[in-house]
Amino acid sequence: MPNTLTQTEKDQIRYKLTTNTFSADAEIAKLMEKGYDETEAKSLLLNEIREFKQVLFEKKMQQNKQGEVESIAVGVTVMFTLIGPLFGITSPVWFMVAFLAAGIGGYFAAQDKPIAGIAGGIVYGIIFPLAHHMYFADRTRFIRIEMVIPIIMAMIPAFILYFILAKTVYAKSDKESYDY
Q1: Mean pLDDT value of segment 113-123
Q2: Residue 1: which of 42, 40, 47 has the closest Cα?
Q3: Which of the residues 17, 158, 168, 170 has the least number of beta carbons within 10 Å of its own beta carbon?
Q4: Whether 77 contacts 106, CB under 8 Å
Q5: What is the DSSP secondary structure assignment for residue 21, as one 8-state letter?
Q6: What is the pLDDT of residues 58-84, one digit of tens each?
Q7: Where do the domains of the chain lie?
């Protein structure tokens, strides 16, 4: 009798763990019916549960790391596009650099859906200077917190475009992928 579980048995155990239908006693009984003795069945089951927990832990750590990268990329994109209007830079070269930086920031903010991220970043980079100019036109005084309003005004269409592209361009890949 082999002292390892087959991939099918591992997949069944993992599926039951994720759907909360797992019963250790029932799984041990199944393994004993297949010819394993009780201690070996318990050991195999325990090892599979540990391995599955390790996989879930590594996946969660990767998601946390990706979340940190996304947050930093969004923050850098916002700050970079804020520099031009804040310091009164009106050079077309600056705007091209800001659009490029916003696209790169969008890519890193949404690495799992890069086309949507790049498009959303570029739209944000284009709309923010316009929103800033429109909101602060003919004003000589303002409260610093008011700088958030043009940022929000630019983020709304960027997020809308991102979500539209994410749901249409990546619709097939979202349906095909499933995780434990």
Answers
A1: 93
A2: 40
A3: 168
A4: yes
A5: -
A6: 988 988 888 888 888 888 888 888 888
A7: 7-55, 68-175
Distances, alpha carbon 22 to alpha carbons 26, 40, 89, 157, in Å: 8, 19, 62, 45
Question: In whole angstroms, what is the distance from residue 48 CA to residue 55 CA?
Answer: 10
Q: Which helix (H) or strand (E) holds 93?
A: helix 92-109
CA separation for the pair 23, 25 (Å, rounded):
5
CA distance 177 to 139: 51
Terminal alpha carbon distance of the chain: 28
Distance CA 71, CA 106 (A): 11
pLDDT in tens, 88-116: 888 889 889 998 999 999 999 888 899 99
pLDDT value at 180 more than 50: no
